[in-house]
C-alpha cells in the first residue's frame, strides 16, 4: 500500500525548511524531501551572502534562532559580509533542531490523482499527498543562451554548476554575463590561478554601494534599513509584503521585471576592478568548439566583430523562472498551470491553478515581487502557507 501524507514539500532549502518548521509546530502531517541547504553548500569558497544577515534566516516559529543570533554565538560577523559557509552551517543546525525528519531523496515525478498527487522518489518509493509545495529554489532554472548551447559540457558550464574554481588554474576563461554570478566568477577564476575576461552585453557592470551599519538619524529616516537594503521603496515592500501582489497584473509584471537588474555586491569590487578585464557592450553572436578550445565571435557596441579563443566559457547568464523547466512535473500538470511569462500565476496563498499545488521562492517572484526572490521572502511565505495548509 502507498504511504500517504497531507503535505509534501519538495526541497529543503530556506523556504522548504521554514515551511516544515511551521507545519510541524501546527501539528500538520507533512513529509519534506531534498538534501538540506544543498544550494548554499555548493557555493564556492570566497563568496559572501548578498543579503544582510538579519534578512537571511531559517524562519522557525520560535524566538532566538535568527542567523545574526547564531553568528554572535559563534563569534562571526552578524551584519555583512557573512560567508555562504556560515549560512549553510547555520541552516543545517536549524534543520537538525527544527526539521529533523528531512528525507534526503529527490522527488523524480509528481502526477495528478483524483484526490491529490502521486510522488515518485529516487529511493523507489511512491507516495500519495493531498497537497504539494514546490520549494526547489533556482534548481533547474539556470538559463544558457541559445548561442552557447552547442558547446560541449567540458568547455562550458553555467555558474550554478560550478562550486570549485581550482579546475580553472592555468586556463583562459571567458565569462558571459553582467550579474553578480558572472562578476564573481571572473574574480574566482583569477584567484584560482586562471585568466578571465568578462563580456557584458549591456552598457556597464553595476556594483552596489556598501550601506554603513551606523548612520546619522536623518539618513536613517530618509532611507530606512530594510531586508532589501536601505531605501524608502524597499521599506514599503517590507512593511506591506503583499502590496506587489495586489497591483493590477500588467503593472505588477512591469514592476517586477524592472526591479533589481543585474548588479554585484560591493565586496567583490576590489577583487575585480583593475584585475579582471570587463568588456561592456559585447554580445556573443557565435560560439563553436575549436579543437580542445572554444572560439567565440563577439559583436561590440559599434557593430565590429572580434574572435576570442579560450579554454573554457562560463555562462553567468542568470535564471529563468519558467515552470516548464521543472522536469519532475508531468506534462498533464504543466498544461494546467496558468502562467505569467512562464512563472505560475498564484493565489495569495501561493496556490497555482492546479488545486493543491503551491510554488515558493523564485517561482513566486513574478506574482509577489522582489522580497520573494530572496531568502527573506520565506518568512511571509512560511507563515501564510502554514496557515493555509493547516
Ligand atoms: C549565486 C547566488 C547567490 C545568492 N545569494 C543570495 C543571498 O545572499 N541572499 C538571498 O536571500 N538570496 C540569494 N540568492 C537567491 C536564492 O537562491 C533564493 O533566494 C532561493 O530561492 C532561496 O532558497 P530556496 O529554499 O527557495 O532554494 P534553495 O536554497 O536553492 O533550496 C532548494 C532545495 O531544493 C532541493 N531540490 C531541488 N530539486 C529537488 C527535487 N526534485 N527533489 C527534492 N529536492 C530538490 C535542492 O537540493 C535544494 O536543497 C542567491 C542566488 C544565487 C544564484
From TrEMBL:
Transmembrane segments: none annotated. This is Predicted flavoprotein CzcO associated with the cation diffusion facilitator CzcD. Residues 6-325 form the FAD/NAD(P)-binding domain. InterPro entries: Auxin_biosynth/cation_transpt, FAD/NAD-bd_sf, FAD/NAD-binding_dom. Keywords: Oxidoreductase. It comes from Bradyrhizobium erythrophlei. It holds the Pfam family Pyr_redox_2. One of its GO terms (molecular function) is flavin adenine dinucleotide binding. It comes from the Bacteria.
